[in-house]
Specification:
Shape: globular
Helix content: 25-40%
Structural class: alpha/beta
Order of helices and strands: EEEHEEEHEHEEEHHHHEHEH
Distance between the termini: 11 Å
Number of helices: 9
Strand content: 15-25%
Number of strands: 12
Length: 304
């Protein structure tokens, strides 16, 4: 490391785990730590973030610059976290509270924005001017990076496509769903991992998680294959709205559902008929950094 350049630590604060990663100025990993998330106890979450930072700094032997990736986003009006599916964090000054307990400045961003920044920097979107990063996990989120810089928007909600209504232009009528946010038929309720599982259960009466559905589909189970076909069709329709507005150079998928290989072929075959163009040149690709992408992006909230 160059003299005088402090390393960066990214912390990804999730509903089930808190992961922290220390990197040097070139983006090389120095140390990593993962602990369970005390998601039902706000004060315990703040303390857990403090503790993983302290432990990592002890391991790397010095103080670092800290970036946080969180569900939801910080309201520019109130400075409080909002729209987090880890609801205990909503209405709280999470960034300020972590900053106070660490006694230094920190930077905080939505976890999907962190994912997009990571993949645009040195991941599957590297070298592309506009990257739309998608999270398909416990929830559905998105982030926009233009020329290596996050685009947040004036209300800091840019990329929040998961809480638009699922388009129903083609195919069978959509089942009615209700989202934790209070709205009906949010994209998240169909395209998240739990949304995929719920769709399979509605159609088959069998409760399986997304990975189990994918495994059954690979073994030739027609019901599981039909579930993934419906999923790919809905994902293509939902992404078409983003492509028509942003026309990104690449769409990078992340989150647990992004590991289901058959989804990519399904989306690529369906997306051209959904967008407002004579040909579809928008690649939809798997992320490069896997589960580490969000935490790498949180560290990159600070420049090298």
């Amino acid at each position: 490391m160059n003299q005088g350049v402090r390393p960066r630590i990214g912390v990804d604060v999730g509903g089930t785990k808190i992961e922290a990663l220390a990197i040097d100025e070139a983006g090389r990993e120095l140390a990593r730590l993962r602990v369970p998330s005390p998601s039902a106890d706000y004060r315990a979450m703040v303390a857990a973030v403090r503790d993983v930072v302290v432990d990592l700094e002890r391991e790397i032997g010095g103080e670092a610059r800290i970036g946080l990736g969180t569900p939801g986003s910080v309201s520019p009006t109130t400075g409080l976290l909002r729209n987090a599916n880890s609801t205990v964090m909503n209405g709280r000054a999470f960034g300020a509270d972590v900053s106070a307990t660490l006694q230094r400045e920190i930077r905080i961003e939505n976890d999907a924005n962190c994912f997009a920044l990571s993949e645009a920097s040195d991941g599957a979107g590297a070298g592309r001017r506009m990257v739309f990063g998608v999270i398909l996990g416990t929830g559905v989120g998105g982030g926009i990076v233009i020329d290596q810089r996050l685009w947040e928007g004036s209300q800091r909600i840019a990329g929040e496509w998961g809480h638009n209504e699922m388009p129903a232009r083609a195919g069978a009528a959509l089942p009615d769903t209700r989202c934790w946010c209070g709205r009906r038929r949010c994209i998240e309720t169909y395209l998240s991992g739990p949304g995929l599982a719920a769709d399979h259960a509605r159609e088959t009466g069998t409760s399986l998680n997304a990975q189990a559905i994918a495994a059954q589909a690979r073994r030739g189970d027609p019901a599981a294959q039909a579930t993934l076909a419906r999923y790919a069709d809905r994902l293509a329709r939902a992404l078409a709205g983003v492509v028509n507005v942003l026309d990104p150079d690449v769409v990078v998928l992340g989150g647990g559902v992004s590991n289901i290989e058959v989804v990519y072929a399904g989306v690529r075959s369906r997306l051209p008929r959904e967008i407002f163009a004579d040909a579809c040149t928008t690649p939809v690709v798997r992320n490069r950094h896997g589960d580490a992408s969000g935490v790498r992006g949180a560290a990159r909230l600070w420049p090298a």
